[in-house]
Amino acid sequence: MPLQSDYYTKVVLSDKAPVDDSLSSREIQLILGSPTKTAESDLVQFATEYTRHMRMNQGWNTEHVHVEPIEFGELPSLGEPTHIEGELKVWIVE
Q1: Rounded to whole angstroms, how far apart are CA atoms 56 and 53?
Q2: Residues 6+ apart with CB under 8 A from 50
Q3: 41-50 long-range contacts, Cβ below 8 Å, gap at least 24?
Q4: Where are the domains of the chain?
């Protein structure tokens, strides 16, 4: 469960290549939470490494990353983290 005292960041990885014959793109959204502020570059590196197998299995060609801080009150319903590494908690959201 998310803690109000933690810092949260939303990281969105997207592949702008068309899926099938449509113009839609693929996207993976992660919420990363930590009791201390983490450098944006470290969060991007973690998110890309953590999702590498998912993206490779889906045949992603290009990757675009969008990072934004998110306040506790703006968090979606998260439940238990998808993954925990040290103090960093990760949720994959739809």
Answers
A1: 5
A2: 30, 83, 90
A3: 43/9, 43/11, 43/67, 44/11, 46/85, 46/88, 46/90, 47/11, 47/13, 48/13, 50/83, 50/90
A4: 7-93
| Range scoring the smallest mean pLDDT among 22-31, 33-42, 47-56, 72-81 | 22-31
Which H, E and C letters describe 36-82, residue by residue?
A: CCCCHHHHHHHHHHHCHHHHHHCCCCCCEEEEEEECHHHCCCCCCCC
Tokens for 8, please give them. 């949260």
- Predicted model pTM: 0.85
User: What distance, in Å, lies between the first and last C-alpha atoms of the chain?
Assistant: 17
